[in-house]
Amino acid sequence: PLFSEISKCNSQLPDTNSDDEEISVSGKKLLQKSNYTIVKFIDKGSTSKVFKVIRNDQYYAAKIVDCNQLSDLLRKRFLPNEMKIVTTLKHPNIIHTEEVLANDECSIIITEFAPDGDLMSYIERQSASPDMERAKHWAIQIIQGLVYLHSKGIAHLDIKADNVLLCQGVAKISDFTYAQCSLDPITNNVIPCTTFCGTLEYKAPETLHRAAPFNPFIADCFSLGVLIYTLVTMEFPFGSGSDLRTTAGLQRLHDNIQKKQWHSNHLIKANRKLYSLLKQLLNPDIDERITAEQALVHSWFDGFKGKK
């Protein structure tokens, strides 16, 4: 599969050009007011631009959101959620937020800078599958981060390799654009999700056809299964790219997930415990799909020294 074909199912972005490196006047003023200096443009997402910045000889990443470019749903619901959530998180496998800056026109999230880039970029650079022990090391760290989020009642809703950053060998979950607080604070019951966002290659089957509200924590676990499969094999279990982004392709994707028809891969076939983990995470039956906590204690990780 061509990883370069991957894109948000709710957005088709143009190729990077000089406009991507431009910052609104409002954004510049916010950064300057807090003594941040722009170093360089890093990347562009579906709703934001990311820059490397510096303050007091310390590098950071600045995610800059132009509020005037957002839909009402993103501006009134998702962005306030993200700004609130990121300031409450503190875990070694969650990207650290230094501070948030905002005015009526612009919002900026300042986070620690990840010098090693994101996990998808790492995968794309490899000529062969990553070392299995390294893959297991990162998988554990990602799961630990997800267990932490879920323990706080937060569903990420866009778990994927692009949203895992590498900081001196440590994997950290990032980008909380679509994250939601999904536990009722009084009853502690799961609040079903009605927002169908995320990236198509990683989406759980119950989120594909917008048929009914779904459990966002269990949906995160399906995405986790896709991520681990991709990390180990350098391909997606159910395909990728523009072929999925048609009515027929979407139906085929749904059917293949329901029939548990993964792409055959020798690395997974040869590892009984890994196959067992993926089988449970990629289970289309939400009542049988395992949680992040259950994944963390799976036998594939038995005896691994990186486990905490």
TrEMBL record:
Record domain Protein kinase: where: 36-301
Annotated GO MF terms: ATP binding; protein serine/threonine kinase activity
Domain of life: Eukaryota
Keywords: ATP-binding, Kinase, Nucleotide-binding, Serine/threonine-protein kinase, Transferase
One GO term (biological process): intracellular signal transduction
Pfam families given in the database record: Pkinase
Protein name (Swiss-Prot/TrEMBL): Serine/threonine-protein kinase-like protein
